[in-house]
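Hi support team,

I'm filing this because I wasn't sure whether my run with protoporphyrin IX containing FE finished correctly. The job status page said complete, but I'd like someone to confirm that the output block is well-formed before I use it downstream. Pasting the exact inputs I used:
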Amino acid sequence: MELTSSLLSWQSIALTAVLYFSTLAFYRLYLHPLAKFPGPKLAAITRYYEAYYDIIKNGQYTFKIADMHKKYGPIIRISPYELHINDPSYFEKLYCHSGGKWNKYDWAVDAQCAIGAIIFTPDHDRHKARRLPLNAYFSKANIFRHKDLIVAKVDKLCSRIAEFSGTGRIIDLGAAISAFQRDVSTEFVLGKDYKNLDQDDFGVGMTLVFHGGGAMWRLTKHIRWYGPAMLAIPKDFLIKNAGPNTANFMRYAQDSEHETARLLEAAATYKPGGDDGQRRTIVHEIFDSDLLEEDKSVARVFADVATVTGAGFETTASVLRLIVYHVFSNPAILGRLRDELAHATSGSDDGSSTLPLQTLEQLPYLTAVLMEGMRLSPALATRLQRIAPDRELIYDRYRIPAGTPVGMTTLLMHMDERLYPEPHRFEPERWVDPEARKKTEKTYAPFSRGTRICLGMHLAWAEVYLVMAALLQKFDFDFEGLTHEDHFEVMSDQFIISTKGKAVLQACVSHRMA
Ligand code: HEM
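And here is everything the job wrote out:
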């Protein structure tokens, strides 16, 4: 009895804890398989180091990692378990996936709380199987088949913008562009138009929710029960009690889940061109696939619907906002683009001012402008870890043990001065000179590469070409006193990039002078 109570005294508990944590720290610093890799000692000892930058500093670990590389070199240990590389010459090895299995890091992707979604499936083979049914749907050929859907939304975007033209009223072009993206994405993926473009404020609350959404992921990475606990709150309760933006988002989530369930049922009787008006969606592709029955459950299919549609929202919208700002604030770039478009229009068969997507894709300067936008805003602010589960990786003089998560951050690579002199400048010329372009062709990767390359890449390209061509031909925007270059400064990792100006892009608009 006496022995038990002395073992349970606070002094002995404290001593045990001190002994445990110092032994653990000693092991992680000197005996762990990653002990030989450079980096701050505290990061090697505990993941609370990352948690501090993720949670307390609100998404600053990406930028801290950039600083750590300056001090410790191109390969560093950023947590007890994980390495980060900042060396473009290693990009192909880590992301182009020639042979062997490449997993994602379950600790990072599970925290997104969309278990089963393609993008957050860690296992190589499982990911491949789940992605297979969607590849044809997102192929370039299928995007071309759906170009009228995109063009119709571009026309709607333009008519909404035109309402502000010459009125002196300021438009939040950022919200308008986000609304466009959401409407295209949900209609293409799920066959339903949520009519964000019809709303007076372009449904800006939804945009704000997406720009703050990374917080839950960053918290859940470190406090594992947090995300699942939040998801367990009934949506009806949140719709009634949360603030208006979260409630709106919840209404959308609830409706798209019901829609997914309805489509899964309807898919059994789907006939192409049938008179029930059913349009083929990704739900039909999954339903008809050889995937296991458990992968066709409403919950699993909804995980894909939610993340595939969501992946097309603020990613492409951020790129477009940045491009629109730079193009319309720079008369030389604007003039050159308009000349190129005018030339292409005069050469078109019917002289029509609406140039087909195929023609736009051939325009070298427009393409250079879009590429430069994607360089500066490669959608994701975070590192994308890859794991070779069954073999060592070699980096320089280091042997990386099998199973180690290793990440690179595209945002940092796209800002590498060795590849892009004056990396913060919006400089489309970089992409005009074939020699300069050659230098970066292996490491320019806004959509990543390899087996996990962005599924919606062709859709995103089609959207940016068609929107930019239409805006250039129809409008002039004046940002003076409303939006500045520093609004596009990357401020935090919300999984997606979050900028100083958030998603706002205020402008005065007028119809283009001939
Ligand atoms: C400029 C716009 C976009 C950029 C820069 C972009 C970038 C990326 C990147 C870097 C990844 C890899 C993520 C990872 O490895 O974890 C990715 C994956 C993905 N993207 Fe995009 N994306 C864009 C637009 C879109 C659109 C419009 C959609 C669909 C509507 C989409 C759907 C997806 C999906 C489903 C994945 C997961 C693919 C997989 O894991 O197999 N993206 N995207």
